[in-house]
Amino acid sequence: MSLTLENLNQKNTKTLKTIQSEVESINRIALSVDCVIFGFDENKLKVLLIRSDLRKYQSKWSLLGDLIHINEDLDAAAYRILKQRTGLSDVYLEQVHTFGTINRHPAGRVVTVAYCSLINIQHHKLNIFDNELHWHDINNVTELAFDHQQIFDTCYHRLQKRIQEHPLGFNLLPKKFSLRELQNLYEAILGTKMDRRNFRKKFFAMDFLIDLGEIEQDVPHRPGKLYKFNYGKYEKKKKKWVGIDF
Amino acid sequence: MSLTLENLNQKNTKTLKTIQSEVESINRIALSVDCVIFGFDENKLKVLLIRSDLRKYQSKWSLLGDLIHINEDLDAAAYRILKQRTGLSDVYLEQVHTFGTINRHPAGRVVTVAYCSLINIQHHKLNIFDNELHWHDINNVTELAFDHQQIFDTCYHRLQKRIQEHPLGFNLLPKKFSLRELQNLYEAILGTKMDRRNFRKKFFAMDFLIDLGEIEQDVPHRPGKLYKFNYGKYEKKKKKWVGIDF
DNA sequence: ACTAATTTGTGTAAATATTACACATTTACT
DNA sequence: AGTAAATGTGTAATATTTACACAAATTAGT
């Protein structure tokens, strides 16, 4: 498109009153939040799904979502919706992306803000099971309702990126974990296999793991040492700078 | 917070009709887009700002924003608003983050979706100058209207990260550029100084620069060679994988 | 108590990437 | 012709990444 008369002639300054009237009337849109909650169990990455609220769509799984209230902070809405749907609190939610194509929702114009989180399934027991809430292996997530597949994919890619740059993974493990568990986690999330010796060398070189002087129990083979993550040291030493790399 | 009776008793399933009525009435919110348009000129990173539409706030600069229409895709709204405010089209906009605290806007509840872009100031001449639209050196961006400082900061950090991982910077340079111009760009955006020899080595090793066999004109010193970026080769060879690093 | 199966724990050499650093060359200007 | 300014280039030291193999610890089965 090129420059049009409409653009040239339009005077963009508006009064507060004009804007107030626009805000109060013609341009209001329903806003929702959808939460993509990742967890890790049995060496598989999982995600929490429910049957859609819309009975019409209950043959498909959907993300945890609801409309946000007009007098509610966006982040607060995300926490409220998560709690309402799952009973979970004390979970850190990160905003990922906002999806706003016109026809994404069958009930009308609804723009949705996607949030995602990573939790330890053992530490965060679900308290509410409405709409068949339960964990799904991410490799079986397919044909979600509405545009939820796209939202899920976006959040999953974000997760893959973030876990390489931040120590998110430790949230998904028991408080005391072995290096094998840590590697299984990375392999599950990144969908790849890694060399065991190099993986260990990498983490030992970072020097953020504390050897607890304990070993795994009840494993049918040589038990591994248990570690915990040194968040304090990480906060002090974390990378300020990376280089140009593409 | 722990589990409450309210949570246990709430039945989360709703009918389509219930949702439709929520979408159509109580929960509608004004949505806006704000654009953070970065450009590069005179070895400085710049950003496009206007005086706020609200006369009351016209002593402060603000981002390019407007309300989105109820029947308009979110991305389309961003492009429309950019065009309306600046006359610019053919500019790639990337969504960055959505800001939704209750009192962020004086005209009422307005949730805003921030988009950002990087353009070559020479290639994209502005056609509209309402509200004193013009380029500001990013080092002089301070005290923006509303929460626009926060939005700007978020977009600037995103830019700093993305330019290290993707070849965005070439959009900001002339079609033919010298390595010094490229380095100035990176130094301006990242706010740092780099070693000239190592910078060159890095880019030559990537092997995405095409030597045009031409040299700079009208420089008061030895002219540098001119290059262009090989987008085709980049698309084929670009990094699929990075490692764990934090 | 022995054996088999499984997984942990460890080291090194080669290749690659990063860093710090200095001087001769080219051009415009006077 | 001389000066000022920026370009273009190389190397040695260090750090990081990669590929790769074998002994030790434990359980389960006999």
Main sheet: strands, sense, barrel of chain A: 7 strands, mixed
N-to-C terminal Cα separation of chain A, in Å? 32 Å
Radius of gyration computed on alpha carbons of chain A: 22 Å
Q: What's the helical proportion of residues of chain A?
A: 25-40%
Largest interchain contact: A-B, 80 and 80 residues
Oligomer: homodimer
What does this structure look like?
Two copies of one chain form a homodimer. The first copy, chain A, has 246 residues and is of the alpha+beta class. Helices cover 30% and strands 25% of the residues of chain A. Chain A has helices at 5-9, 16-24, 74-86, 148-165, 179-190, 196-206, 231-237; strands spanning 28-41, 44-51, 61-62, 64-67, 94-99, 110-120, 134-137, 209-215, 225-229. In chain A, strands 1, 2, 3, 4, 5, 6 and 7 form a seven-stranded mixed β-sheet that branches. A two-stranded antiparallel ribbon of chain A has the order 8-9. In chain A, strand 1 and strand 2 (44-51) form a beta hairpin. The model of chain A is unreliable at 1-11 (pLDDT under 50). Strand 1 of chain A pairs antiparallel with strand 1 of chain B, so a sheet runs across the interface. The first copy, chain A, binds a DNA duplex (30 and 30 nucleotides) through residues 178-180, 195-198, 200-202, 205, 219-225, 243.
List keywords for this structure.
homodimer; 246 residues; alpha+beta; seven-stranded mixed beta sheet; 9 strands; globular; DNA-binding
